[in-house]
Design brief:
single chain; about 325 residues; mainly beta; five-stranded mixed beta sheet; 2 helices
């Protein structure tokens, strides 16, 4: 079997006594248990680990944690390494504390930044990894309280809002976006997605609810050749932008639910990595799966519109 090893994090990989640097490829037997020792170049951030790959009948049957694999069929696969991050644990360090009439709210760091509410009830919540510049505010209510935590996560704004009715704490909002604006009746967010048209997504969230309104606005005005229309189409479909329908011929259904039922639970569109496929063939898969077997589709485009979507095969 031909397996390509890739990693976004620089790593040294030891395989059969030799040191290699990703990307590289290995050739295995039809029945084999492969062991790779992965040593990230930043040991202060990522842990070393051993990756075990089980190959049965020239197919990947299993893979241990720390990677995901895309199986392309015909004895070919791509393994994406994902070294685990180092988890530091130490004596909790208090970052902020607020005393309410009936509760004590503490923001602290024990290797993972957390918020703890104790008094009328007990509640703890882990904040996102890498969150910085934390600020906490509290507000007493006639019956209960509201706690808000603001911060930054990878150059984006972070908001956590908790509500207590004097019996339990609940999450009103937890949001990460390029811009967050708190209004009297909810929260408005603006986020720029890394799509081909750099869509700006404007959303509104009432308390204790997902977004009830989302507007998608392209920030890049660009005309793409027909061969790239499938990628524009599936990007819009995956992120919930109803403008996907403008890329479909009138003869095709523009029912989003029906299309998603046809293609299944997928969230990624790429060009097939192996095989002699024409440019009008795309691969769809669910990036959250550990062992991925993409579906290949032939996309017919006529007069600047998608006229047919044909399922070719499921990679194995």
């Amino acid at each position: 079997m031909n397996i390509k090893i890739v990693s976004e994090i620089p790593c040294s990989i030891f395989y059969e006594g030799a040191q290699k640097i990703a990307p590289f490829s290995i050739i295995t037997k039809e029945e084999e248990r492969v062991q790779l020792s992965v040593l990230p170049s930043s040991p202060e951030k990522y842990s070393a680990y051993t990756l075990i790959i089980t190959i049965t009948n020239d197919k990947i049957a299993d893979i241990s944690g720390g990677a995901r694999v895309i199986c392309w069929g015909e004895g070919r696969a791509t393994i994406h390494l994902a070294p685990p991050k180092v988890q530091f644990r130490f004596t909790p360090r208090v970052l902020g504390q607020k005393k309410l009439n009936k509760d004590l709210v503490t923001l602290y760091d024990d290797g993972i930044k957390k918020i703890m509410c104790e008094g009328t009830s007990f509640y703890t919540f882990d904040l996102p990894e890498g969150v910085e510049n934390l600020k906490m505010k509290v507000k007493e209510l006639d019956r209960g309280a509201i706690v808000c935590v603001n911060g930054r996560v990878q150059d984006k704004e972070y908001l956590l809002a908790l509500y207590s009715n004097e019996q339990e704490w609940k999450i009103m909002h937890e949001l990460i976006a390029d811009e967050i604006v708190v209004l009297e009746n909810g929260v408005k967010t603006v986020e720029v997605l890394p799509t081909m048209l750099r869509h700006e997504v404007r959303s509104f969230y009432p308390a204790f609810s997902t977004a009830v309104k989302r507007d998608f606005v392209p920030t890049i005005k660009h005309s793409y050749p027909d061969i790239l229309l499938p990628y524009l189409f599936f990007e819009s479909l995956f992120m919930g932008d109803e403008n996907f329908a403008r890329l479909l011929d009138d003869g095709l259904s523009n029912d989003r639910s029906a299309i998603l039922e046809f293609i299944g639970e997928v969230d990624t569109v790429v060009s097939p990595d192996f095989g002699e496929w024409d440019l009008d063939v795309v691969a769809l898969y669910n990036s959250k799966e550990r062992i991925i077997r993409p579906d290949l589709y032939k996309i017919k485009v006529e007069n600047g519109k998608i006229s047919n979507i044909i399922h070719l095969l499921t990679c194995n």
